[in-house]
From TrEMBL:
GO terms for molecular function: carbohydrate binding. This is Galectin domain-containing protein. Residues 1-62 form the Galectin domain. Keywords: Lectin. InterPro entries: Galectin_CRD.
Amino acid sequence: MMLTRSFFELEFAFQDGIIDVYKIYDGGHNRITTYMTEIDISEIKALQVWGDVQKIKELTFCYA
């Protein structure tokens, strides 16, 4: 039996031209995918979300 949740949390880690995406769990996190950026990260102006997403509660980016 597979249980599905309607709430989940993703973390985007930006470092050296790479974006790592992690799914956050109660006990930790699991890397989902890694993207190599084609442009400088500071040039990113938009984010697109695809799939069966009905509502985004919060979206936070921190660039340090």
